[in-house]
Amino acid sequence: MSFPTDTIAALATPTGTSAIAVVRASGPHVSALVTEIFGEKPPPRHAQHADYRDASGALVDDVLFTFFSAPNSFTGEDTVEISCHGNPFIAQKILEDLFARGCRPADAGEFSKRAFLNGRMDLSQAEAVMDLIHARSERALAAANQQLRGALGRQMQSLISQLVNVLAIIEAYIDFPDEDLPAENRQSVLDQLKELQTGTARLLATSHYGAMLRDGIKTVILGEPNAGKSSLLNRLVGRERALVSAEPGTTRDYLEERILVGPHALRLIDTAGLNPTPSSLEKRGMDKTMEQAAEADLFLWVLDATRPLPALPSSTAGRLSSTNTIIVLNKSDLSAAPGLSVPTGYRSAAVSALTGVGLEKLRALVARLADSFQVNIGEELIAINARHAYSLDQARQCLECASAKLSERSSTELVASDLRGALDALGQISGKVDNEQVLDRLFATFCIGK
After folding, report:
1. What is d(CA 7, CA 104) in angstroms, rounded to the nearest whole number?
2. In sequence order, what are the beta bridge partners of 251?
3. Which domain holds residue 248?
4. For position 180, what pLDDT does the model report?
5. Tens of pLDDT along 261-320?
6. Are residues 21 and 83 in the same domain?
């Protein structure tokens, strides 16, 4: 693994006019740069007010700059952050001067990459930086903050430590067959592998919740034509997003909007009405509805309180359950249909999309149902991403193969190979796997060569 030897610089705040812009530089020449530009290097982590003059001596701006000495900086290198007035022209002038003095433009994500290379964070924490920047709900923000503070890394370190123990036992029988080792206990190793598989499966189970946090909970509004689905969308969004008409079948395609409900972000999708006798155009809209329903996380099943309970297409009805569906009894301000029977076991809210009555109760129900999607991993909020899920699945497969081989009394070398595959897969998540750990643990456990 190669470590950078040059100094990089970039704008650390978004491009555009603002009160303040921050330019950051990091690398081995920062200390000399600070002295050259400002005439002195202040104590680390102390903001200093000064004039910024370019290499020709021309005044660019009066700024605040803060010097961070290695290794106590974000990147683990000497770093300076220069806060200037938020005129894009000023920020660009400072950057151009830094480039003229020997810095180079930072690549995308390079500050975080250097932080990883210098041991300031693992890969999962580096990814959490982007999750934190893009979080659009309280729950997504909480998950990103916990991951940035090492929650996933701690879970991975626990799994890796257990796996290294097992691998050390297995490899002892390969590398030191003549040593005075404890008798082989396959069942004990199988029990430890089962614990590892359980821990891996628990983390894998957070994958879908992680996608919900990052992309929003896919929430499909469905029901028969003219039940008030588009009116409900408009109420929840807070503006006239969808066309509303007394004529059934107005919505022919789906509409999507993002909203916040409590601590959750929702991708709210209004769909075409499910008509038992559709026209050809309505049929195409219904096909789109069923496509969205097949991938939904949460359903708002809108019922017209003035009409009997409608039947749903079997493919869609099969997706609805008490764990993912809220029944919205709309038009509650009108007289209810005689004998209207709402399905039991479901959360439900009587609302009027026309007047807004009942919307707060509906929002509370949605928030509580969304809370139930979280997979608990102890006290920490863990929500892995697709990369983590791929590596964990690879590890799971390797652990299953190792268990099967051990149960069948296959070659110990083959078991060890599977365990090393699992170790490599888990290591991909943090980016930190040192196979020398295995030998260290082996000698410490068995006192070989004492």
Report:
1. 6
2. none
3. 216-371
4. 46
5. 999 999 999 887 787 666 666 667 777 878 888 899 999 999 998 888 888 888 888 899
6. yes
